[in-house]
Amino acid sequence: MVELIAMLTMPGLVRLKAVAQNEMIGFVGGDFRPQDNVGWVTTLGVLLAYRGMGVGRALLRACEEKLRLRTPVVRLSVRRSNHVAIGLYESEGYSLVDVWRGYYFDREDALVFEKKFD
Q1: Please, where are the H alpha helices in the chain?
Q2: What average pLDDT does the segment 15-19 reach?
Q3: For helices 83-91 and 55-68, what crossing angle results, to 10°?
Q4: Average pLDDT over residues 107-113
Q5: What is the spatial distance between Cα 60 and Cα 75, in angstroms, rounded to a whole number?
Q6: Where would you tag: which of 7, 19, 22, 67 has the fewest CB atoms within 10 A of its CB?
Q7: Closest by alpha carbon to 61, among 80, 49, 76?
């Protein structure tokens, strides 16, 4: 919950939303980590009714564009079981670079993906 509040209120973070018929149908957030010279996509979500329509892909690309202004490397993490998201990230050029064992509250692993830009 604290991370969500920070994402919504801290200056300098990437916060984008997708809207259809005056309703928010998706969102993405990201931040730049200057100590590592890396951008992180910290959250990405799309309402179930709008999944599979390219909304998540468009949000991911828009977040990357904002982060690329400050760094050539973007990372993100995803639950090992989230095969749909993993497929999206791989199709967008992300590669697996790390596994965080037991990262989530239910002890599921997080897969860390990275994409490098020229």
Answers
A1: 2-9, 55-68, 83-91
A2: 96
A3: 50
A4: 98
A5: 11
A6: 22
A7: 76
- CB of 22 within 8 A of CB of 29? no
Half-sphere exposure of 58 (CA within 13 A, CB side): 14
Q: What is the C-alpha to C-alpha distance for residues 42 and 75, in angstroms, rounded to an integer?
A: 9
Which residues touch 63 (CB under 8 Å, ≥6 apart)?
A: 14, 16, 28, 29, 30, 41, 44
Strands laid side by side in the 73-79 sheet? 14-20, 23-33, 38-46, 73-79, 110-116, 95-100
Average pLDDT, the chain: 92
**Tens digits of per-residue pLDDT, 58-93?**
999 999 999 998 889 999 999 999 999 999 999 999
> What one-character DSSP code corresponds to residue 90?
H
- With CA atoms as reference, report the closest residue to 78 among 43, 54, 53, 31: 43
